[in-house]
């Protein structure tokens, strides 16, 4: 018996003459991810953009325009980071926000291998937000949320 899959618009369905159409993927995270990728690819194709087109320009340009549209500056901005629970990485992160009189809260993972940080700081404009992200990105294996 050969399994054939068809796209019925709501996801992929297993088509077998002996069995009624059975959904293979339910509406979960995987389906949403596939839908997002399809939507993103269709937007790139419809606008004529290449997937590598943004590599030569500023990678923060889209983020900058989103900040300009959604936040009135100066404003309190909340940064969230996850790093390995290594002392030199923790002190590097804290030192980046030391001069800004930021409020920093931290939580450890259940195994104690990682630490999450929430940093609340007053920023003057979107360039300052991007500058903080660029500074923190220099820390090895940091996850910026």
From TrEMBL:
What Pfam families does the entry give?
DUF493 (PF04359)
What's the name of the protein? DUF493 domain-containing protein
Q: Which Gene3D superfamilies match?
A: 3.30.70.260
């Amino acid at each position: 018996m050969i399994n054939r899959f068809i796209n019925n618009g709501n996801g992929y369905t297993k088509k077998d003459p002996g069995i009624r159409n059975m959904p293979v993927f339910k509406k979960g995270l995987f389906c949403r991810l596939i839908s997002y990728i399809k939507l993103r690819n269709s937007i790139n194709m419809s606008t004529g953009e290449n997937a590598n087109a943004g590599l030569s320009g500023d990678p923060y340009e889209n983020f900058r325009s989103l900040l300009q549209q959604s936040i009135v500056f100066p404003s309190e901005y909340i940064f969230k980071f996850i790093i390995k629970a290594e002392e030199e990485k923790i002190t590097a992160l804290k030192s980046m926000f030391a001069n800004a009189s930021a409020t920093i809260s931290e939580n450890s993972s259940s195994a104690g291998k990682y630490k999450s940080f929430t940093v609340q700081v007053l920023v003057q404009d979107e360039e300052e937000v991007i500058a903080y992200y660029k500074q923190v990105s220099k820390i090895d294996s940091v996850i910026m949320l």
